[in-house]
């Protein structure tokens, strides 16, 4: 990437973020978003399938579901195309009892998710909207919804 292109990208991002500190830059949808997939755990295949479905159901822009090691692939070195990542972290959970109409109790796990947008060019996190939800799929939909709001 040429130095002038890099400087122009930095200036545009700085100007956009100065208007709305902590928010997503207006130019974010011009990039292919790299959505970080789960790489361990017994439910990773189902989790990644749900992540793909949830993200594609809420976000109309380009994105790719990749693993952390994939970031080292030369394909993703082009920051003029692959500048931003989205990562999900489960920061905890609580168990919740719910009483059914028949009097039985069922126990549900309520996860707390932290979603992080990361700017690979500026090397910093952009937005950490804390998400508390009763399902992972709801948390997986949030970044796409936030990105779609950039058009409005």
CATH architecture: 3-Layer(aba) Sandwich
Count of DSSP E strands? 6
Number of helices: 3
Poorly predicted regions = 1-21
Helix content estimate: 25-40%
Tell me the domain tally: 1
| Percentage of β-strand residues | 25-35%
H/E series, N to C?
Answer: HEHEEEEEH
What distance separates the N and C termini? Answer: 31 Å
**Radius of gyration over C-alpha positions, nearest whole angstrom:** 18 Å
Overall pLDDT, averaged? 77
Tell me the major beta sheet. Answer: 6 strands, mixed
What structural class do you assign from the helix and strand content? alpha/beta
Shape assignment: elongated
Instruction: Give the CATH H-level superfamily.
Output: ABC-type transport auxiliary lipoprotein component
CATH topology: Rossmann fold
- Oligomeric status of the shown chains? single chain
Class in CATH?
Alpha Beta
Provide the fold topology.
Layout: H1 3-19, E1 33-36, H2 44-58, E2 63-66, E3 84-99, E4 105-119, E5 124-127, E6 130-132, H3 136-148
Parallel strand pairs: 1-2, 1-3
Antiparallel strand pairs: 3-4, 4-5, 4-6
Task: Report what the structure shows.
The model is unreliable at 1-21 (pLDDT under 50). By secondary structure, the protein is an alpha/beta fold. Strands 1, 2, 3, 4, 5 and 6 form a six-stranded mixed β-sheet that branches. A hairpin with a 4-residue loop joins strand 4 (105-119) and strand 5 (124-127). The longest helix has 17 residues, at 3-19. It is elongated, with a radius of gyration of 18 Å. The chain starts with a helix and ends with a helix. It has a single domain (3-9, 27-151), classed as ABC-type transport auxiliary lipoprotein component (Rossmann fold, 3-Layer(aba) Sandwich), CATH 3.40.50. The chain contains three helices and six strands.
